[in-house]
Amino acid sequence: MANIPLVLHQEVANYEMQNDRGEWSGASEATNLLCLDKERDALLLIRAPLQDPHGTLSTWTADDHDCCNWSGVTCSNQTGHVTGLDMRFYGLGGEISHSLLNLTYLNHLDLSLNYFHGTIPTIIGSLTRLRYLNLGSNDFNGTIPRSIGSLTELNNLDLSSNSLYGTIPPEFGNLTNLQYLYLNSVGRCRVEKVEWLSHLSQLEVLVMDGVSLSKANHWVDAISSLPKLFDLSLDGCELSQVMYPYSSSFLNSSSSSISFLSLRNNNLTSSMYRWLSPLTTNNLLSLDLSGNMLDGIPKYFGNLCSLEYLGFYNNSAVVKFPDFLNNLFGCTSLTLQMLITRGSQFTGSLSDEIQKFASLESLYLSDNQLNGSISEKLWELPSLETVIISFNNLTVPSTYHLSNISYVKYLDLSSCKVGPRFPKWIQTLKNLTSLDLSNTGISDAIPLEFWDMWPSQLEYLNLSSNNISGKVPDLLSNFAYDSVIDLSSNSFHENKFSGGISFICQIVDGFLSFLDLSHNSLTGQLPDCLWHFDQLEVLNLGHNNLFGRLPPSIGSLIQLQVLYVYDNNFSGELPLSLKNCTSLISLNLGANKFSGNVPVWIGESLTGLYVVILRSNNFFGTIPLQLCQLPNLQVLDLSMNNLHGSIPSCLSNLTSMLHQGGFSQDVYFQTTRGYATRAGRYVDHALIEWQGDEREFLNTLKLLKSIDLSSNNLTGQIPNEITNLSDLIALNFSMNTLSGEIPQHIGEMKKLLTLDLSRNNLSGKIPSGMSQMSLLNYLDLSYNHFSGRIPSSTQLQSFPPSTYNGNKGLCGPPLTKKCPGDEESEATSVIGKGEGDGEDTDDEVERWFVIGGGMGFATGFWIACGALLLNRRGRRAFFQFYDSFKDWVYVKVVVFISSFQKARHT
């Protein structure tokens, strides 16, 4: 398929201009003239207030008298005047100096992709020679200055991706030479009257994504009057709120020249097709209606005889797919090359009618509700290269008899019904470079000839989450550059090479970016040949039977971001070379037999780590203080080892556990020839000890903030500094030999959901502040030496008595043991009531009503809270509501009890 420029914004932004005065041409010009002193001085004054952390303006110095050689500066080769400043993506911040006005011949100004803030300076409107102005992707705010409307020479204006607000000034209508206008993602900007648009008779590209048009009722008329407009993008413009006039004159408006039209994310319903018709002429090449509420398409779409791209993904209304295709029958079915409808509500089958789309090259139907069998005719389309139909209820027959050569390169059938037999017809797709058959119900052995079908061309292979058995042969000749191999969660066993997993040494041609062989039955030692994989970003060998040491060549994986070897039999000390893997963000070596000291270089060299899991190994020695130097660390699990010494007080320096928010970096691996984005993101995961059970965290791992040092030989007191970790969710120090008291300020850790200090030698009273830990839903203080009354709170009394077992000195609810003085208080209460008045029964009912109500409230609350535990946005809103609701309930209960008691005594 020809590359369809769905949006031409970036290409247009870099277009070249030149005129007879030697003005901007898009690149530095050779010049024999020195720049003028006045303009050189102006440039130095412009640089002075700027923040330049990367030194991109290092050439701007007073020692160099020819400013035309400075970075980003362009001069006329005829006059020496500065005509262009291109500081795009320079990483600059600060303010824009008024000295810019001294560059009176400036016609090209690009400050995009920087960190400029504040309002857009009104002085820019005085640079009347400007033909190109790009201020996009900065931190500008405030209103768009009306003075920009004075730049009548402009033919390219980009204000996109800022935080601007207010109305678009009608003075923009003065920019009659404007060809390219970008106002997308400008915060809370809006357009109330659109008449000024009709004055821009030279406009070719208009991008207003994110600008509210909710009050612009005549925008279609204004757009239709622009004779040269070919690219229009109005994504997220609140078009569903526009009241459209439906007069016959409107519908008969002049034809538009628009070739690229995008109306995504506007909550539009199918009533919009009436006013859309003037914009959908035979010139239309690309139409994107995604992210709306459309229940289909009209029949006139079948007459869009130039349409090559149709985007209809993430629509929320139910659509019958056969009806959808029927309305495209006509000349459109002969021109359409790319159809994207993923993540919508399509129902029905993928039947033989698909054969009418002879030009179709890319079909994206994933994440719908399609059912039935996939037609054999699909694979016979002569131009089809990409088929992404995963996550449906479709069935793929195993009896295909493909007669014509299929040109399919990218095939994703993930979570469709392909098995139980391995589909041999796949081998007829001789052009495949990417194949995803994960979770397709295959329970069969792979034919050996399968591995020989695509010599040196496979980029992506995912057979995970099946029950595939058999041997993995020499993969040397099958995979191309930047390959991804995922054979996890199957039943592969050792292959024909000696040493079990040594077949990976044969993958030497090209470079691998992702390798997942987890959840198999692989045995043997990991061979020392990993230098082949210096581009590897994800290595997952977890849940196998591999043993021996990690080889020194693992230090060659300088691009590695995730190392997961959990649940094997690896042993010995960690190789020193692992410190070279400085790109690591997740290190999971748990459930093995590693030994030696916890290396100090983990904290010194691997500073990007947010996960460190060394649990269930044989590490000994003390916890290195260098771990406190990991600024991103959110999950630290050193449990079930032989560590001794004290808990470092410097753990309070783990800044990610101090501040709100979760780790944001995703792991993306790429293929050079471009597979669908589903294949490109790795979801990090880990097994974590959670409230007494082992639980696997998947998508939610990056929200977890946890420290687990349990089941070691740690001694000393719990450092008071640990209570500074105000964003910590889980803390487990159980099964050590810790002594002393619980830190008195532990109640300030209000985000804690789980706290386990059991089976230590802790003593003293339970701090009263713990009664304020309203989110706590798992607590274990058992088998210590605590004493005194358990602090009164709905929270602490709601836990079962086993929470406090093995502490002989503790008393008070929920334990049956009464505290000293309780008996006398009860006797006094009984005498004061008098005999026979029944008030003892009433008080008992009242007491259990309050306690039972509190326990019921807490139980119900935590059932709801459990669902919100790892939904950060929902959690924040819910707990804000809960805090105010809790106060309201408390007041109501107190008033009720007071009224009840008064009523009873009257």
Automatic annotation (TrEMBL):
InterPro entries per UniProt: Leu-rich_rpt (IPR001611), Leu-rich_rpt_typical-subtyp (IPR003591), LRR_dom_sf (IPR032675), LRR_N_plant-typ (IPR013210), LRR_R13L4/SHOC2-like (IPR055414), RLP23-like (IPR046956)
Molecular function as annotated in GO: ATP binding
Subcellular location field: Cell membrane
Alphabetic keyword roster: ATP-binding, Cell membrane, Glycoprotein, Leucine-rich repeat, Membrane, Nucleotide-binding, Receptor, Repeat, Signal, Transmembrane, Transmembrane helix
Domain spans labelled Disease resistance R13L4/SHOC-2-like LRR: 99-290
Record field: transmembrane: 848-870
BP term (GO), one: defense response
Main location as per UniProt: membrane
Topology within the bilayer: Single-pass type I membrane protein
Domain Leucine-rich repeat-containing N-terminal plant-type span(s) in chain numbering: 37-76
Record GO cellular component, one term: plasma membrane
PROSITE patterns per record: LRR (PS51450)
Region (Disordered): 816-841
Family that this chain belongs to: Belongs to the RLP family.
Protein name: Leucine-rich repeat-containing N-terminal plant-type domain-containing protein
Provenance organism: Lactuca saligna
Taxonomic placement: Eukaryota, Viridiplantae, Streptophyta, Embryophyta, Tracheophyta
